Amino acid sequence: MTYESLTAFFGWMTVLNFGFLALAGLGMLGARGWATRLHARMFNLDATDVSMEWYRFLAQWKILTIVFALTPYLALRLAG
């Protein structure tokens, strides 16, 4: 794999992950009541617990995207 293709791979991986993260956040904002009720029934949780878990999921996804996609992309861009 060449240096340029590796840089392009991490760049597109970053764009796609942040795009999916934005869609997931907007989707949850649009369907908050329905999704909260559904997940509360599925996993036997309170509505506040479902909201907290959803927030935690989005935060962890963002951190993992920064660590495993954005950081290597920036390192490759700065090294080249």
The strand count comes to 0
Average of per-residue pLDDT values: 95
User: What is the helix tally?
Assistant: 3
Work out the oligomeric state of the chains in this entry.
Answer: single chain
Gyration radius, to the nearest Å?
Answer: 17 Å
Uncertain stretches: none
As a percent range, the share of helical residues equals over 70%
**Termini Cα gap:** 15 Å
Classify the beta-strand content into a percent band.
under 5%
Largest sheet: none
Number of domains: 1
What structural class should be given to the helix and strand makeup?
Answer: mainly alpha
Order of helices and strands: HHH
Shape: elongated
Main features:
single chain; 80 residues; elongated; mainly alpha
Structure, explained:
This protein is an all-alpha fold and 80 residues long. The protein has one domain. Helix content is 91%, strand content 0%. Helix 1 packs antiparallel against helix 3 and helix 2 crosses helix 3. The longest helix is centred in the C-terminal third of the chain and has 33 residues. It is elongated and about 50 Å long.
